[in-house]
Amino acid sequence: MKARKGVHTYERVWLQDGALPDPQSYDIVIPLLGIQGSGKSTLINTLTNGIAQLAIGHDIDPCTQAVQAVPVAHPGSPTHRIVFLDTPGLDSTTSPDSEILERIAAWLKKSYQDGMKLAGVIYLCEISQTRDLSAARKNLDHFEKLCGDRGTKNVILVTTKWSSPPSDFEMKRETDLRAPAHWGHLVRRGFRMRRLEDASSDCAWSLIHFSLADAFTFDTQKIKDDLAGMRESLKKRDRQLITTLEELLLSQNNMALELKRDEGLSDVLWNQLVANDRRLRDTLRQIGTKVSISQKVKAFFKFF
User: Fold this and answer.
1) Measured between alpha carbons, how far is 100 from 194 in angstroms, rounded to an integer?
2) For the segment 46-78, what is each residue's pLDDT rounded down to a tens digit?
3) Which residues, 6 or more positions from 303, have their beta carbon under 8 angstroms from its beta carbon?
4) pLDDT 10s digits, 170-221
5) How far apart are CA 211 and CA 51, in angstroms?
6) Are strands 77-86 and 68-74 parallel, antiparallel or unpaired?
7) N or C: lower Cβ tally within 10 Å for the chain?
């Protein structure tokens, strides 16, 4: 599809991909990236118990050619939706990686406008694949340029299609991936590596729990000085707002850690987490009516 004259690339690529017809506030978005055949569509089919019925490719022709949103109610918390984003395979024969990443970034930009929340990015790589191991580094660096830090704040690098038990070749490949020339650079930046050891629903949802917990976890040490500065700038009677914010952040982190540990996420825990996140952001908005909030703090909380 060629760009129409005068149409920005983001607008052009948005038109050719699948919009979510009923975006809801507090939908949680998890994009799945990876080269063709890494298991993105397979993972979504597993998470939906096959309801999504996404086509699976086994040859050089990619099955996923559009950015496709798949909304799913968590099996333990049906009142809230997670939107998995199936994406065209990188390193494909049909489109350059830069164009595919721009299309994903465009979809996410629209999701922000609709009030949806990005949990993080899951980048999949088949453990036995022999193609360029540095592809993830190059693609995620480019994706960060398109989306900024908000797009790559929480990234999980996932190896798929493991044997049982793992073969010596697979173990060596995992070691190779951790090398500085490949994923080591990304791991030092805070990206995490995980195995998707089997094709079970339990294994798939355990991975998703980590990504969901990341969406609600905040390292307050990064903005400690900014919070102290805001406290000093507030009138004495309003300084309790900073204390309230800090208490909400502590509760948020504790619940997020519980989410990582909980194999069967309860509706009660999820509702508490979302409600706490709303109170946190409402408190920050109240502070913003009384004192200037730094761009660092706005970015930290993903205010756009």
Assistant:
1) 24
2) 888 766 556 555 444 445 578 888 898 877 667
3) 281, 284
4) 999 999 999 888 888 888 888 889 999 888 888 898 888 888 877 777 777 7
5) 22
6) antiparallel
7) N
Tokens matching residue 36: 């063709």
CA-nearest of 28, 27, 4 to 16 is 4
Q: What is the DSSP letter of 228?
A: H
DSSP 237-296: GGTHHHHHHHHHHHHHHHHHHHHHH-SS--HHHHHHHHHHHHHHHHHHHHHHTTSPPPHH
The one-letter amino acid at 288: G
The DSSP 8-state label assigned to residue 184 in this structure reads I
Q: How far apart are CA 187 and CA 175, in angstroms?
A: 13
Cβ-based neighbours of 297, under 8 Å, separated by 6 or more? 223, 226, 227, 230, 284
- Cα three-residue angle 229-235-239, rounded to 5 degrees: 65
Q: Which residue type occupies 250?
A: L
Query: If you count them, how many residues does the chain have?
Result: 304
| Separation CA 118–CA 153 (nearest Å) | 10
